[in-house]
Amino acid sequence: MSRNPDAPLPPNSTIGILGGGQLGRMSALAAAELGYRCHVYAPDADSPGMQVAAARSVAGYEDEATLAAFAAAVDVVTFEFENVPSRTLEILAPLVPCRPGMKALSVCQDRLQEKAFLAAAGVPVAPWAPVASEEDLQAALARIGLPAVLKTTRFGYDGRGQAVLRAPEEAAAAFARLHPKPLILEAFVPFTQEISAVAARGPDGATAVYDAVENRHHHHILDLSFAPARVPAAVADSARRHAAQVAAELELVGVLAVEFFLLPDGTLLGNEIAPRPHNSGHWTQDACQSSQFHQHIRAVAGLPLGTAERHSDAVMRNLVGPEGMAKLLAAQANPTVSVHLYGKAEARAGRKMGHLNRVLPRGTVEQARDEDLLSGL
Ligand SMILES: Nc1ncnc2c1ncn2[C@@H]1O[C@H](COP(=O)(O)OP(=O)(O)O)[C@@H](O)[C@H]1O
Ligand SMILES: [Mg+2]
Description:
- Pfam families: ATP-grasp (PF02222), PurK_C (PF17769), RS_preATP-grasp-like (PF22660).
- It catalyses: 5-amino-1-(5-phospho-beta-D-ribosyl)imidazole + hydrogencarbonate + ATP = 5-carboxyamino-1-(5-phospho-D-ribosyl)imidazole + ADP + phosphate + 2 H(+).
- Residues 115-301 form the ATP-grasp domain.
- Keywords: ATP-binding, Ligase, Nucleotide-binding, Purine biosynthesis.
- The protein has helices at residues 22-33, 48-51, 64-73, 86-92, 102-109, 111-120, 134-144, 171-178, 233-249, 284-287, 292-301, 321-325, 328-332, 364-367, 370-373; strands at 14-18, 37-42, 55-58, 76-79, 128-131, 148-152, 162-165, 183-187, 193-201, 207-209, 213-218, 221-227, 254-262, 268-274, 313-320, 337-341, 352-360.
- By secondary structure, the protein is α+β, with helices and mostly antiparallel strands.
- Strands 9, 10, 11, 12, 13, 14, 15, 16 and 17 form a nine-stranded antiparallel sheet that branches. Strands 3-2-1-4 form a four-stranded parallel sheet, sandwiched between helices. Strands 5-8-6-7 form a four-stranded antiparallel sheet, with helices on both faces.
- The radius of gyration is 20 Å and the shape is globular.
- Adenosine-5'-diphosphate binds next to strand 14.
């Protein structure tokens, strides 16, 4: 007899995770706490997720025979990065429940679809235009103006596949570098802050949204998140409402993050959606009873969601490359800091190796100076 897909997964069930990165690793660790086994599917045998998995499939994402065996071995499938080919979900979806499903994956894989989706969901976005040729780029620049950002529509992360255009003569070289991939031109947003909000949504539509956080980037890679964001309450509420709305309209089952730019007049513009746990939600591991990874697994397993309430303030620092790893010994010796490492062998430049969460009493982030908040990080 086949199982009712809406009933909570019983303990010891197996959750399949597509992708072997740190988000899958931390999801698998949360799943283990909740009494589930994880079967990780990824091309690389020594990936962070594989190291903590109960079962493994080491194969390409379009290997139909291995995908079929994976589907047969798991009770539900999720993914930890949105660049899983849509073909993979097409193969798996008839065989096993996939959470979140195709809609969340396809919208968030493509910046053009993502921008149109955000606008339709009532989230304002900066002016943008698709760019397939140099003529398109000239026309888009004439409409959008400078400065602007030219990005690949797919497979971008940590600022890869992007060029900031400040002068007209920079356009040709940027186009030549990023072409022939499909591109998007976006107006450069003169933001005062970047903030994000993480929302969890269960199969029954129940939603839990964490407090919005302030994010700072270094070389286009997330460096710091401050929880909560130091913004007016109306701005934080608006970010959280947008995240819940986007989750509902994507029919998401799992966790997502929406990244926003905050303008000087208090307007929020949507930047990106990540249909999975997000780096800007790592603070929830130490400052909330249910972390974003627990919520993701709860949603995917059909368990009731936990609370998204923040019992403490937190500052998260990413450990990136060799400079990040140089902070490790001091962080390990600091009792106010939780260290999370991803098991990556080599600290290459720009590579996320782990993160630190500094936990602080509620109200501290609002009041303290940055230099005090960052001590030990
Ligand atoms: N249109 C823009 N205006 C200003 N800054 C931008 C713009 N797009 C991206 N950035 C900066 O680059 C960072 C990374 O870009 P993003 O679009 O989020 O791509 P990804 O995170 O996938 O690399 C953003 O967090 C922001 O700091
Ligand atoms: Mg981003």
